[in-house]
Specification:
There is one protein chain. By secondary structure, this protein is an alpha/beta fold. It has helices at residues 4-24, 29-40, 45-52, 56-66, 84-90, 102-114, 130-143, 160-167, 180-193, 227-240, 259-271, 334-344, 378-385, 405-415, 445-451, 458-469, 476-486, 502-509, 511-514; strands at residues 70-73, 76-79, 150-154, 172-177, 197-201, 218-221, 247-252, 274-285, 295-303, 368-370, 390-396, 419-425, 432-439. The chain is globular, with a radius of gyration of 27 Å.
Length: 515
């Protein structure tokens, strides 16, 4: 029977190797494979380097860390038989077959895509095939160490998040998207199939949610294929990546008839501080995108020290719609602004730009925000971000939040504890409408407290709201436990109110009243 001292001595090598692999993060898979080979039979050092595609110095370091667990003979290096069980249990736990076959995941993806939202041309949506979503997930599984990994998807109309969690159950995934329909669809499927997917709303043109900065080992995106779109999404990915061991996987394709465009995009990626570790042509296939042959390449990018920098706000990044590179709203004339002032009850000298990453505190004249290019979600986010006593929001006359009584009531249901709303359709001209918001002076309860502090962490603000509105003395600990008991996903408590998908935002603001 082994003594505790003998067990501790036996564990020195494997624990040293484990620590080295842990330091490598998602890039540990080829290093782990070194020991899979050493268990099977003896291998020479050149064989280990070639098969595992790992630098010689790294393989030598691993062998040195394993110490006496690795023996060297005429045929090369091999793991001592007495150490096999320890290494299988403590080091090779990830070398198991996936519980689901690729074909089963592909079948499920077909169902998910068929019941999902239609592509939005204004957001450059082109649907990837179900085989492509599974191929992306399989690439992650086969090339990275995913046991404790956290994957971020910047946009996910193709439902790659769901394919990844089905194929690699131990993977945690966060999805950021502008399209509220996609976030709701992913949430519904994730809940039904108990998949670890957390969704966050953002328009990356205005910034990355603060809770997502420096938190991810892997980032995947299929961005708009303009140089501006590729550059913006790459910059946001760099903000989200944890360190130099993180990797960015991008889909991008260009026509062989227009190589200059491909060159411009690749230059933009290099300018953003990325180096191309791998380019796999023909990796992604689409229903559409025929101008580029319905396919695009997989770019595997490694960040350099220059990559971790932010970029300014950009709006024109798409190839179609009101925010394409060719479009652009003209500055309103004096007559337009004069008529607009008549609607909001104050002189309007200029329109203010959209954006909600920071609180919109204003004084003096009534601010009017230019939301003429709003693809749908901006109005709600701007109402949450704005803390003016009165504000106007200029939107298209066919904006989805104002075209019917039901739509208007749905918007009021979310922001009603903060603002009273007036909908002035067909003003100041037939193509536009103005939403006038008047701040409620008092009341609103918990929902009002949260709505007036939309840029604070939900968990902290909600706890403060409970204490402030409690008729009895309530401790911070009791308030925190109360809040945690009310939310379905504790990850939401680390977000800001402006980052929540709309369907969860509405539910959260009315949770306390229904509890």
């Amino acid at each position: 029977m082994s003594t505790q001292a003998e067990v501790a001595t036996d564990s020195v090598g494997v624990e040293a190797v484990r620590e080295r692999l842990h330091h490598e993060g998602v890039l540990a898979r080829p290093l782990r494979h070194v020991f899979t080979l050493l268990i099977r039979r003896a291998h020479t050092l050149p064989e280990l380097v070639r098969i595992c595609r790992t630098p010689r110095r790294t393989v030598e370091e691993l062998i040195r860390l394993a110490g006496e667990d690795v023996e060297h003979g005429p045929e090369g290096y091999r793991l001592r038989e007495s150490a096999h069980e320890r290494y299988r249990e403590r080091l090779l736990f990830g070398e198991t077959e996936s519980p689901r076959e690729d074909e089963e995941v592909e079948r499920l993806l077909r169902e998910f895509i068929a019941t999902g939202p239609a592509p939005c041309a204004a957001l450059d949506h082109v649907t990837a095939t179900p085989e492509t979503a599974v191929r992306r997930a399989a690439w992650l599984r086969d090339n990275y160490e995913l046991h404790r990994a956290h994957l971020l998807l910047l946009g996910d109309h193709d439902l790659t998040s769901l394919a990844s969690c089905l194929l690699v159950p131990e993977l945690r995934v966060t999805v950021v998207d502008l399209d509220e329909r996609i976030l709701a669809h992913i949430d519904g499927i994730a809940a039904e199939h108990q998949l670890p997917v957390h969704t966050v709303h953002a328009d990356l043109r205005f910034g990355l949610p603060t809770a997502l900065v420096d938190g991810f080992e892997l980032v995947f995106s299929d961005p708009p294929y303009t140089p501006e779109g590729m550059g913006l999404f790459t910059a946001r990915a760099a903000e989200a990546m944890a360190d130099g061991n993180s990797r960015l996987l991008l889909a991008y394709g260009f026509s062989p008839r227009t190589p200059a465009l491909g060159h411009k995009v690749q230059q933009e990626l290099l300018r953003q501080g990325m180096v191309f570790e791998n380019i796999v042509t023909g990796f992604h296939e689409y229903h559409g995108a025929e101008a580029i042959g319905s396919t695009s390449a997989l770019y595997v990018c490694q960040p350099t020290a220059k990559a971790h920098r932010s970029t300014g706000e950009r709006q024109a990044i798409y190839t179609h719609g009101p925010q394409s590179l060719e479009s652009g709203e003209e500055a309103p004339g004096a007559d337009f602004l004069r008529a607009l002032g008549g609607v909001v009850g104050s002189e309007v000298g200029e329109l203010r730009s959209p954006g909600w990453q920071r609180p919109l505190r204003t004084g003096g004249a009534v601010p009017v925000f230019d939301l003429r290019a709003d693809p749908g979600p901006w109005l709600l986010r701007m109402l949450l971000a704005c803390n003016a006593d009165r504000a106007g929001f200029l939107v298209p006359n066919r904006h989805p939040d104002i075209t019917s009584e039901h739509a208007q009531n749905s918007l009021w249901h979310v922001v009603g504890a903060k603002y009273a709303l007036r909908f002035q359709r067909g003003k100041p001209d037939a193509n536009h409408a103005v939403v006038v918001a008047e701040r409620r002076k008092q009341g609103g309860g918990i929902a009002g407290y949260l709505s007036h502090r939309a840029h604070g962490k939900i968990g902290n603000v909600w706890r403060e709201a409970l204490i402030a509105n409690s008729e009895t003395t309530l401790t911070k600990r009791a308030a925190r436990e109360h809040v945690e008991a009310l939310v379905a996903d504790s990850a939401d408590l680390g977000l800001r109110l402006i980052d929540l998908p709309r369907h969860r935002l509405s539910t959260l603001l009315h949770t306390e009243a229904d509890a």
